[in-house]
Amino acid sequence: MAGDQPIIIKKIKKGGHGHHGGAWKVAYADFVTAMMAFFLLLWLLNAVTQEQLEGISNYFTPTTVSQSTSGSGAMLGGKTMSEEGALTAKASKVTAKLDLPPPKVQEKQTEQTPADADPTTQALKKHEQEQFEKAKEQLENAMKDNPAFKRLAASLMIDETPEGLRIQIVDQDGLAMFPSGGANMFLHTKKILELVAKVILTQPQLLAISGHTDAKKFGGSGNYTNWELSADRANSARRELLNAGVPESRIGRVVGKADTEPLMQDDPENSRNRRLSIILLRGTGEQKLPEEKLPGLRDIQQKQLELQKRGVPLTPQTPSIAPAQGQ
Predict the structure, then answer these.
(1) Contacts (Cβ under 8 Å, ≥6 apart) of 67
(2) What is the mean pLDDT of the chain?
């Protein structure tokens, strides 16, 4: 059959993009499920309270099964994430960490009275303060009333320190207490010390004497410095006070301080840093109250004795009883 057309059969072979199977569907389903679980967890965490979150945290703590202090011991401490109070056990407690301050320990009130609250001690301190004020007034008036001390008035400084009443004799420009580098005092220095000694003899306190220099280096040999010079000048003042009648038993200490305690802090080489310091030490020496003050003190002590007999506890406001000196 020459006139018939040939029949051509084409066979197409598929390849390269064949079917991969259904494994991807399973993986995708797992991914979607995980995402749903994740967003559900976020929603639940946003819906619960802080206390419930702490309960969950305690439940999953590695060191223990649960740190919950509730009666249920579960992760939510006996509570549900549904409506408030729907499944809450009355006996349970919500787990919560509270940073409470430590309990205050009430100090036991002591019935002992500080020594400073004792009426006799207070009266003695007040009397000593009056003595210091009187001694200061006597020295100032003596310097003003005597024309010979008119120029030396600026050399005498009197003030009070925690140690006691301090009397200082300082150098002035052109009017030194000692020769340069020497410990033998001038005549006018001895006159001032004689005046100071008269006032000291009216007081019972012990004395502390110290010598001071300026910051200029001593020009003598290397073995003799401002330390030795200040100590020698302090001892020179001690000897002069003894010559003026002050008992040796009244001398509490004698020291040389060189330039370690300048009077003029901003100018260590100032001439006023060269000085003698005599301190009537507070609380030293035998103290007696004047007779006119004893009757009033006895009245106070009698009232306190009556309070004590009635069982009133002793406090700093109601001091203990001490016999007045000089009775």
Answers:
(1) 58, 61, 95
(2) 76
CA 199/CA 269 separation, integer angstroms = 31
Beta bridge partners of 165: 160, 280
In whole angstroms, give the CA distance from residue 275 to residue 262. Answer: 9
Strand ranges across the sheet with 156-160: 156-160, 164-170, 275-281, 207-212, 251-256
Neighbours of 140 (CB within 10 A): 13
Q: Map tokens 């004590």 to a residue.
A: 308
Token readout for 12 is 């197409």
| Mean pLDDT comparison of 16-25, 135-144, 300-309, highest-scoring range | 135-144
* Phi, psi dihedral angles at 142 (to 5 degrees): -65, -35
> Residue 96, SS3?
coil
Q: What percent of the chain has pLDDT over 70?
A: 65
Identify whether the C-beta of residue 132 lies closer than 8 Å to the C-beta of residue 279.
no
Strands (E) in the chain, as ranges, are 156-160, 164-170, 207-212, 251-256, 275-281
Cα–Cα distance for residue pair 251/281, rounded to 1 Å: 10
